[in-house]
């Protein structure tokens, strides 16, 4: 072999034999004879489980653990836990768990409770009864929950309900006729009016800014002819101001504690004497009625003491007065019969606000339980339940169209509800702090105003709910807002002891 030729080396593979090949061949032959029947076919029924690869124990345990975790998460999603932080803490306490960890918020605490309940499963719940024994109590409970019970009311309530029914039917007929006329209008005409309104809103500017009291102002209201403004404050005084120059005309003295809200009675002339023209309510539960010709109250309503009365509102007829009380109820007072005709419960916590529909047939209340309720004054039934807010409701109002309701809450949002469909139609993420009050435009409902603790009031368009204008200038949180009946003025009341009157330029 020459040096130029390359040598090729072949590496021999090693063969490892386990045992004797003879014995292995003999075992295979014997196995084949046993598995084959007389026809020469293999009998697969004689195969043993040793011929298949068994599942490793560790893999099986891991798979079982994963399935168990998926089941637990599925149960956690199906478990309903209250959004009330107090109830969540109470449930944790019953399970002997810490009610709060360091840095844990309400949402994290609620999630922890869900995880605990899903992990405990049947152990954390009462033992389940057999299906046959369980069917009967469930059916009985369903019948109990769905049944409506009544108790006999006073004769004054029956008379009030008949009167409200007759009053509201005529107004509803008129409202529907006006709505039909608007529908027949050309769409270009409607669009032009809306554009003109938006331009006017952009021109809103402070007409007057007045120091209303020595202590923070808590409420404000404008009368029907837009010539008078009524404010209240924590100094226990109520004051009547002229519009638009904001000159003090009358100081109402009589409350012994902080005044929370005021309202003008509709249908009362400015020159009337010894007639109920205004109403106010206080933190101590007192409600006082005032006239234009006296600085002292002409009548007192003391049925709420010692619970706070947060808001009040007059029925569109002026005959009835609705009050929202912190004893978890609201009341209807008949000023002609001079007595309480309805004491309505239904909320689980304090009732903070109340508003009447333009027809006068229904009213809406909002409470610190985060829910609202719509009540039919003619029958006494709750015809709609407003569920959707995450926290207390501080302001409610009806649109002039009769079926839209606005509610403002501590969750910084304003929700729009449709009474016809009995559901929420829109949520406005309105402010960066709680909403203290909400008001619709009274003579058309083309826009909505919200006031907030973020020191601003905002104007929103109807239907599209887009922001049109932000009214800023107060140094403290806003506690109240109102719109004049002719839409010429908007008034805002603040904790900085001032109120501002906004008007078109």
From TrEMBL:
One of its GO terms (molecular function) is U4 snRNA binding. Keywords: Repeat, WD repeat. Residues 23-40, 130-145 have a biased composition (Basic and acidic residues). GO terms for cellular component: U4/U6 x U5 tri-snRNP complex. The keyword Iron does not apply. InterPro entries: PRP4-like, PRP4-like_sf, WD40/YVTN_repeat-like_dom_sf, WD40_PAC1, WD40_repeat_CS, WD40_repeat_dom_sf, WD40_rpt. It comes from the Eukaryota. Pfam families: PRP4, WD40. Residues 23-45, 124-150 are annotated as: Disordered. WD repeats lie at residues 252-300, 309-343, 344-385, 386-427, 428-470, 471-505. This is Pre-mRNA processing factor 4 (PRP4)-like domain-containing protein.
């Amino acid at each position: 072999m020459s040096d130029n030729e390359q040598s090729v080396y072949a590496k021999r593979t090693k063969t490892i034999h386990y045992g004797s090949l003879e014995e292995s061949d003999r075992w295979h032959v014997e196995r084949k004879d046993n598995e084959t029947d007389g026809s020469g076919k293999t009998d697969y029924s004689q195969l043993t489980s040793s011929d298949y690869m068994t599942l490793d124990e560790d893999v099986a345990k891991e798979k079982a653990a994963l399935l168990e975790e998926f089941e637990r998460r599925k149960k956690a999603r199906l478990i309903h836990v209250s959004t009330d932080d107090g109830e969540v803490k109470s449930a944790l306490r019953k399970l002997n768990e810490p009610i709060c960890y360091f840095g844990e918020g309400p949402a994290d605490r609620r999630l922890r409770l869900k995880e605990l309940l899903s992990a405990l499963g049947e152990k954390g719940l009462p033992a389940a009864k057999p299906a046959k024994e369980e069917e009967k109590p469930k059916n009985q409970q369903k019948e109990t929950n769905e049944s409506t019970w009544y108790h006999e009311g006073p004769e004054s309530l029956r008379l009030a309900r008949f009167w409200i029914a007759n009053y509201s039917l005529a107004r509803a007929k008129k409202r529907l006729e006006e709505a039909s006329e608007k529908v027949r209008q050309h769409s270009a005409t409607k669009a032009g009016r809306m554009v003109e309104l938006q331009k006017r809103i952009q021109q809103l500017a402070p007409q007057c800014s007045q120091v209303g009291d020595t202590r923070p102002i808590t409420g404000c209201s404008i009368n029907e002819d837009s010539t008078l403004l009524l404010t209240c404050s924590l100094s226990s005084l109520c004051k009547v101001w002229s519009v638009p120059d904001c000159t003090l005309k009358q100081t109402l003295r009589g409350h012994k504690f902080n005044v929370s809200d005021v309202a003008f009675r509709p249908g009362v002339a400015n020159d009337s004497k010894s007639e109920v023209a205004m109403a106010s309510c206080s933190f101590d539960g007192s409600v006082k009625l005032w006239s234009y010709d006296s600085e002292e109250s002409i009548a007192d309503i003391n049925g709420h003491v010692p619970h706070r009365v947060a808001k009040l509102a007059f029925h569109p007829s002026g005959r009835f007065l609705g009050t929202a009380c912190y004893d978890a109820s609201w009341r209807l007072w008949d000023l002609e019969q001079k007595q309480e005709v309805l004491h309505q419960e239904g909320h689980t916590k304090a009732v903070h606000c109340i508003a009447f529909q333009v027809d006068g047939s229904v009213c809406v209340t909002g409470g610190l339980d985060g829910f609202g309720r719509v009540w039919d004054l003619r029958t006494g039934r709750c015809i709609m339940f407003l569920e959707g807010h995450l926290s207390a409701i501080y302001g409610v109002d009806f649109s002039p169209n009769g079926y839209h309701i606005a509610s403002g809450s501590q969750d910084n949002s304003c929700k729009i509800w449709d009474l016809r469909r009995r559901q929420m139609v829109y949520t406005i993420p309105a402010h960066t702090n709680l909403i203290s009050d909400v008001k619709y435009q009274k003579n058309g409902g083309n826009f909505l105003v919200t006031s907030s603790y973020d020191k601003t009031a905002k104007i929103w368009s109807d239907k599209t709910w887009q922001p049109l204008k932000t009214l800023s200038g107060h140094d403290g949180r806003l506690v109240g807002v109102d719109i004049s009946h002719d839409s010429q003025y908007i008034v805002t009341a603040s904790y900085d002891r001032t109120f501002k009157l906004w008007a078109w330029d």
